[in-house]
Write a structure and sequence with these properties.
It is globular and about 60 Å long. The chain has a two-stranded antiparallel ribbon. The chain has six helices and two strands. It has one domain. With about 160 residues, it is mainly alpha-helical. The longest helix has 30 residues. About 70% of the residues lie in helices and about 5% in strands. Strand 1 and strand 2 form a beta hairpin.
Length: about 160
């Protein structure tokens, strides 16, 4: 039987790849930074700086940097929680909580927590496409809204 599943586009796989690479760079960088704190070996410090530089380059040059940032933060939280359960230690709890709080604040800043991210992941669209679809569906309900320069709607000024 052939199932009619839609093929995932290149943008989806690029997001997965860059999110995974960003997570690996963060995990390796943190591991070597902790080793550098214990042993003060120069190679550990150099690897930490290289990983930090690689992560910075991904965020600088990849156009969908918000998605990469959220994916890497949530991956750190998930792997950290699993590691805490397996090792039965809370040593990584400060990092897990910091990443979870930062991801929460970023999602909160971008809009309705989780709803927009879920819709974008479900429909495999980026944030600009999500906003464009929202403006098309708004129609008559937004008749009292003015278009602002950055593409968002603002309220009409009161006379």
């Amino acid at each position: 039987m052939i199932q009619n599943k839609p093929m995932r586009d290149l943008c989806y796989w690029l997001d997965v790849m860059f999110g995974s690479v960003a997570f690996v760079l963060i995990a390796v960088g943190i591991g070597h930074f902790l080793d550098w704190l214990k042993l003060r070996k120069a190679i550990d410090g150099e690897i930490t700086l290289a990983c930090l530089s690689g992560y910075g380059l991904i965020l600088l040059f990849y156009p969908r940097r918000f998605t990469v940032l959220i994916v890497s933060l949530l991956a750190i939280v998930a792997v950290g929680a699993v590691n805490a359960l397996i090792m039965q230690t809370l040593a990584g709890l400060p990092l897990i909580l910091a990443c979870a709080l930062f991801a929460y604040l970023l999602l909160r800043w971008k809009g309705k927590l989780g709803i927009r991210l879920w819709i974008m992941l479900r429909d495999q669209i980026d944030y600009e496409e999500f906003c464009r679809r929202g403006q098309q569906q708004c129609g008559a309900a937004c008749a009292g809204m003015l278009e602002v320069g950055n593409g968002t709607n603002g309220h009409r000024p009161v006379d």
